[in-house]
Amino acid sequence: MSQAKIITGIDIGTDTCTTIIASLDTQLGKTRVLGVSAVASKGVKKSQIIDLEQVLGTITDSLDAAERMAGVEVKEAYVAISGSQINSLNSKGVVAVSSPDQEIYETDVERVIEAAKAVSLPSDREIIHIIPKYFTVDSQEGIKDPVGMTGVRLETEAHIITGLSTSLRNIEKCVLDLGIKINGFVFSGLASAEVVVSETEKELGVVCLNIGAGSTAICAYVDGALSYSGVLPIGARHITQDLALGCRVSLDSAEKIKLFLSSEIQTNSITPKAGESKSDFAKRRRQFDQLSLTELGILDTKDTISKKTAIEGIMIPRIKEIMLMAGEQLEKKQLLPLVPAGIVLTGGGANTIMMVEVAKHTLQLPARIGLPKQLQGLTNDIHQPSYATAVGLIEYGLKQTNLEEKPSFTFNSFFENKMVLKNLKNKILSFLKSILP
Question: What pTM did the predictor assign?
């Protein structure tokens, strides 16, 4: 009889707290989404907790809604983290191969990763992820998996992502207070990149920008390996704030305007009709340019605003600023020439009008919207950029489950058993030599 394992991902964003509950059939290897919920976040600013009680209530509401839909009780979860607390660095580790026959085993890989992990960090920071970029066996570089190879010296260069201990403990407290065990913290940029970026793009070199409400997470891949991670303290909510100031409306009204302008219907440009005079076309274009705020339910200001002014005069300059800041970070790490596959935009802010066009023009790279990979179940609900991080948490949980379920002989016992058999073989050969003439 097949057994199902429940995997839960919680993404506590600045604007929305998203929870996805999925089940993994451990025998068939199939994953199915059981429950999804997205509730408005409270107590979070720029992806950082500023009010524990409000965040606790937000997570409770999101979990309850997802549990009711799934019909299961969540006991453990993977939690996404982001914000300016995130830093990254690259580190090298070197060890000698321990086996007398110089074959590399899992234990050697574990030791070299531990060696790369031995970096000097401030007392208020801790490691969230350590991801090997590649391995070097003696003088052979660029090896993805050295297990089974023969060599004397094993090296690795690993990418390390760190976070502030205090921020992690605050999130941990909120989740543990609900009686839920944290399986692991996952950087939101890494989680989303795993489900919106293809392996081909990673090999070519690509940058994933997860544009949230309060921050933008960056993950840059070069030669198939994660080379840089970071977070910009700016996001889609800053576009909304600019609209609120420029149009003299409330933040809620500005958000309505932004979403309306970003809808597919509104992006269609107006073209002259057959036989239409220039004056008639100009008049129709002026009418098309006027956005009626009363039709959007906005009554706290003038009746209409100019779409062109809102988009070109207010929204595009802020979008350009986000792209310039991302470009500066990549330029500092000398990565811009190494990412010919371009920019993959995801997160809730990725659907903002002109986001792709401005990214292409500003960074002089290809750009596209990244949709999370489809899972069985409620695919229509979650096949959107805003769910990329939450879907990525499920994917991360699946990989961790597969690693945990590997047979134990692939680790220490494999090495030990092989050495025991080799010693026994040598003893038998020695005994036979001693009795044979």
Answer: 0.86
